[in-house]
Amino acid sequence: MNLGIAIKSVRRQMGITQYDLSEMCGISQTSLSQIETSVKRPSPRTIKKICEVLEVPESVIYILGMQDTDVPESKQNVYNLIFPSIRNLALQIVANEHAALVG
């Protein structure tokens, strides 16, 4: 699971700078950078705050943070079959939230 890459992806898709997101969340830009580069794992509280600021459900961050190494070998076929659709749905949720914020 790589939540940092998921957070970075959503932040960029929404056109928010790392500095601005860190300010809105009340964390340092250094901390956010460490989260996005997987140097530091965000606490559940930090994830919740980031999701509130980005106006996306926490589940979206967890879905986008999933990696194939998170799935047991015995479930890889099912994962490979359905995960692309789930990921696309999560990305669509982010796009819709961004459109609502901009529009």
List keywords for this structure.
mainly alpha, 434 Repressor (Amino-terminal Domain), 71% helix
Strand proportion: under 5%
Count every helix, treating DSSP H or I runs of 4 or more residues as helices. 6
Count the strands?
Answer: 0
CATH architecture: Orthogonal Bundle
Largest sheet: none
Tell me the CATH superfamily. Answer: lambda repressor-like DNA-binding domains
Q: What is the straight-line distance between the termini?
A: 32 Å
What order do the helices and strands follow?
HHHHHH
Q: What is the level 1 CATH name?
A: Mainly Alpha
Could you please say which CATH topology applies here?
Answer: 434 Repressor (Amino-terminal Domain)
- Percent helix, as a range, is over 70%
Secondary-structure map with pairings?
Layout: H1 3-13, H2 18-25, H3 29-36, H4 44-54, H5 58-65, H6 76-102
Helix pairs in contact: 1-5, 2-3, 5-6
Give an account of the 3D structure.
This protein has six helices and no strands. The mean pLDDT is 90. It has 103 residues and is mostly helical. It starts with a helix and ends with a helix. Helix 1 crosses helix 5.
Care to give the gist of this entry?
The protein is 71% helix and 0% strand. The chain is mainly α. Helix 5 (58-65) crosses helix 6 (76-102).
